[in-house]
Design goal:
Length: 316
């Protein structure tokens, strides 16, 4: 089978499409015929060597965190799935993989997949796995958004941002989206009550907010200061400076900056599918690349300015 692998740490040109043996599922595992995978910040950081503590220094390393596809085979002790079932899921983000989601086949434990939502394509499903689950966990579990609260989504035009705008709206939040001005119309369609141009809007001029969802990872203390009494902030844009700001914010108690590593298992994926079915969450796909052009997809991600997600179509 074809699989995208990182052959050394570096820029996008270290990615290679190699011919490797198709994996076989063991006990409790499922073999997925992958139709699409998206490009996530985690993928880019792994490729660049930013997670060497996890991925190590042995190559090749599999690329691609998430996937949407069809069950090809199941191992022993797997119940509830059979060949032909349409599913979505992700590999474990804190484990090293020789092949991962950006491949024609991937093996994962059965508790890392769920039935894919009906009515959307594999490309659309792949665009939501990481972005949607991250936004859902951030709003529901980390900051516990309640109806009527004022919400700021920073980096609202990205994959997590577009999902957060929709889910915050569905939860009854009054949503302010901070993004490029040219994305204002779509973000309004997704549920934003107000869209502010991040190029001309400073943190001092906005707020206060009950909830801030940050996907950028910079100027965190400036935005934390815009929290109302009892406000909560979460960031998923992690960097060295972000981690320092998160640690320093612990002195503010409940108004500290929170973070987490999205690692959705079946229950979260099922909940997210329910939001898709209800119309509360819809995919936003910026561009689609064939597997052979995955390096270009990584480069596009790193350039920024995205509206939604860059997705890699594994099967034509």
């Amino acid at each position: 089978m074809r699989a995208v692998q990182v052959m050394s740490y570096g820029a996008a040109d270290v990615l290679r499409i190699n011919e490797v043996a198709r994996p076989a599922p063991g006990a409790g595992e499922v073999l997925i015929s992958v139709e699409a995978s998206s490009v996530n910040g985690h993928d880019v950081i792994v490729r660049a060597g930013g997670l060497k503590m996890i991925s190590g220094r042995r190559f090749p390393i599999g690329a691609g965190l998430d996937f949407a596809g069809v069950v090809a085979a199941t191992g022993a002790d797997v119940e509830g799935y059979r060949a032909g079932d349409r599913v979505w899921g992700m590999v474990h983000p804190r484990q090293r993989h020789i092949t991962a989601g950006a491949a024609e086949y991937v093996v994962v434990p059965a508790d890392r997949i769920a039935p894919a939502p009906e009515g959307i394509s594999p490309v659309e499903a792949a665009s939501l796995v990481v972005a949607g689950s991250t936004a859902l966990i951030a709003l529901r579990d980390s900051v516990r958004l309640t109806s009527g609260e004022r919400v700021l989504v920073r980096g609202a035009a990205g994959g997590v941002g577009t999902a957060a705008v929709q889910l915050a709206h569905a939860m009854g939040g009054r949503v302010t989206a901070l993004a490029r001005d040219r994305h204002a119309r779509l973000l309004g369609d997704l549920g934003a009550d107000e869209v502010l141009d991040y190029g001309s809007t400073t943190s001092e001029r906005i707020g206060p907010f009950d909830v801030i969802v940050d996907t950028v990872g910079s100027e965190l203390n400036c935005y934390r200061s815009r929290l109302a009494k009892g406000g909560r902030m979460v960031t998923v844009g992690l960097s060295g400076s972000a981690l320092a700001a998160i640690a320093a914010s612990s002195v503010y108690g409940a108004r500290r900056i929170r973070t987490f590593s999205a690692n959705p298992e079946t229950a979260v994926l099922r909940d997210m599918a329910g939001h898709v079915a209800s119309g509360a969450l819809r995919p936003v796909v910026d561009s689609v690349y064939p597997l052979a052009e995955i390096a270009a997809a990584h480069q596009a991600f790193e350039r920024g300015g995205v509206l939604g997600k860059h997705v890699v179509a594994v099967t034509a």
